[in-house]
Hints:
Layout: H1 2-21, H2 29-51, H3 57-60, E1 66-67, E2 70-71, H4 75-84, E3 88-89, E4 92-93, H5 94-104
Antiparallel strand pairs: 1-2, 3-4
Helix pairs in contact: 2-5
Amino acid sequence: MSALKARTAVLLFMALALSACTRNEKPHRPVDDEVQRRDPALVAVVQCLVDHRRIPEAHLRDQPWLVKDKVRGSAELVEWLSVHRETVYAGKTLQAWEDEATAGWPGWKCPL
């Protein structure tokens, strides 16, 4: 969780710093866009992996963000993602899944 929080804090700091330096210019949209795309993209990735049974049951057991096989965005999900970031699911690390989905959001579709 701390890695994602740190990355989000850095992105927000960069956006604020950029807006302070360029008050007469439009805000730097890519930073804002990535932050807004990342959360729904993460939920979609984990939902994809859950739907296709690519995450071992032991990794999902007693997770409060998984209700009746539906993934819900929450702080607990972010924490779980941080712990499993380098875990390989369906041939790619969770980080790679996250990056691909965020880059393609909102058009990203589960490839499984």
